[in-house]
Amino acid sequence: MTNERLIPAQNGQFNIGHICTRLQCDRGFAGKTAMHFLGAHGERTECTFGDLERESARFANVVRSLGFSAGDVLFIFLPKVSEVFPSFLGALKAQLITGTLFSNFGEEALLDRLGDAGAKGVLTRKSYLKKLLRIRERLPSLKFIILTDAAEHQAADILSLPALMQQASTEFETPLTPAEVPSVLHYTSGSTGKPKGALHRHRSVLLQNRTATEVLDLRPDDIFWCTADHGWVTGTSYGIIGPWSMGVTQVHFGGAYDAAKWFEILEQFGVTVWYTAPTALRMLMREDPATFARFNLGKLRHICSVGEPLNPEVISWGRKVLGKDIYDTWFQTETGAIMITNRPGLTIKPGSMGKPLSGIEAAIVSDDGKVLSDNEQGNLCLRPGWDSMFVSYFHHEDVYRQKFKHGWYMTGDTGYRDSEGYYWFMGRSDDVINTAGHLVSPFEVESALLEVEGIAESGVIGVPDELLWENVVAFVALRKGYEWNSGLELKLRLHISNRVSTTATPQEFRVLDNIPKNKSGKIMRRVLKARYLGKDAGDVSTLDI
Ligand code: AMP
């Protein structure tokens, strides 16, 4: 760690909220712009590191005054609005375990996460209140719902954030926070069981800071735009922590994808470093180049991508249209920071994720724990112990332990390493679906489908898609007396969207007489996938079909 751009934790203070705000003010950045925020409806605000320090201090005081103490869980369930940022940092200052949720989550998805974590509070907005109230009775630990957009308190436990903030002091002495204190909680989907909460600790800031420097190539005078939602680990590790831990100005946009708007943002704010995702880049690729021709992106210096495989065609498009390389980076909720990556100084091999970051030991390992040779396919593994490694699946120690085998952390991805040490992604070793960079649990969707009248069985798979990497496809078997029709299909779509999320809603449904299962009743998604793709399903002798 010789790079002078790194900001190490000082005097044993690892608190992420403190490092991203107070420490930056102490470094002389109090008047520097921390964030240009452009809302979904064009509203524009700006805040300095001084503002961020004061507002996060207020929020820390708010949660303390409500009786939250270190280790209590608070979730932020909001779209990208400016309140997210000081609240997230303020909650961390108060040493709360701070979770973020995608704003498109439905009731069941919320119930699973809030219930599993034993959340004490949720920060949200009025329009999401209905969803929460419908599951409230099943959340005995939930003491407070705090609304960002209510001018007054609605009830003793449904409170107005503006009213609370108005009364709170802008001074907060962040308690000394050792590296191991828990910090951020992100729920992630597996292929079996409910989603699990990957719990991080304040130590993670060390690696988020280092990768922001070495991979995103951020320098103090950069203008950085990370398009990821804060519901996703990229949105917190790099949409908040990494860049602010080094005092870099960020742009945040609360609106949806819009090609012209995105280019306008890049130009208008003079974005120098841009971190986005392959699906977004593929969507841009489909646009008429005339859409971009009128924008001057002369300031854009470095572009990175994360979340799904970055196809070589996207890299060629970037070179042609943006005049820049696009650097693929690989990491996951559990790793907390970028692990395998292309980066300045390393020649890009289009289609490869690059090489492990210095200090990160990766390997391709067989199922029985043998480290495989170059070009052999196997499980992508990491040697445990890096600074931003998750410390548990909250309340599921057994599942956590299962992720570590033969001295390796098993990422759940498969791939190979070539003779020059570059890593190539092949797929997942489980059935988790990656659609537009979001992991979708087939189990969650299958369970929700069974709640709809007339559905006897369900099986859900991901199938290749040119734009989204994978599409969600649902197979259903109907109960006797029910018929497949467009009304039922619409009902299923709405149900999944309301219960799970819009992202998880299947793009396609297929009806079968029964869903292939093995003798112990496990849905054989492998067989469904082979059938869908018109391929041989392999050995089906153990199937009950
Ligand atoms: P999440 O935990 O939701 O961030 O998803 C992490 C998963 O997304 C990884 O385990 C991979 O399957 C996939 N992923 C992330 N980055 C990349 C990448 N650069 N190339 C291929 N897959 C990726």
Radius of gyration: 23 Å
Strand order of the largest sheet: 2-1-11-10-12-13-14-15-16
Question: Ends: how far apart?
Answer: 58 Å
CATH top level of the largest domain is: Alpha Beta
Enumerate how many helices there are, as a single number.
17
What is the average per-residue confidence, as pLDDT, rounded to a whole number? 94
Percentage of β-strand residues: 15-25%
CATH topology of the largest domain: Rossmann fold
The largest β sheet comes out as: 9 strands, mixed
CATH superfamily of the largest domain: ANL, N-terminal domain
Unreliable stretches: none
CATH architecture of the largest domain: 3-Layer(aba) Sandwich
What characteristics describe this protein?
545 residues, alpha/beta, Rossmann fold, GMP Synthetase, Chain A, domain 3, 2 domains, 9-stranded mixed β-sheet, 17 helices, globular, binds adenosine monophosphate
Question: What would you note in describing this structure?
Answer:
By secondary structure, this protein is an alpha/beta fold. It folds into 2 domains: about 15-410, ANL, N-terminal domain (Rossmann fold, 3-Layer(aba) Sandwich); about 435-535, ANL, C-terminal domain (GMP Synthetase, Chain A, domain 3, 2-Layer Sandwich). Helix content is about 30%, strand content about 25%. A 9-stranded mixed β-sheet has the order 2-1-11-10-12-13-14-15-16. A hairpin with a 7-residue loop joins strand 8 (about 180-190) and strand 9. Helix 5 crosses helix 6 and helix 8 (about 205-215) crosses helix 9. The radius of gyration is 23 Å and the shape is globular. The mean pLDDT is about 95. Bound molecules: adenosine monophosphate (AMP). Adenosine monophosphate (AMP) binds near residues 307, 309, 413, 425 and 428. Adenosine monophosphate binds near residues 306 and 309.
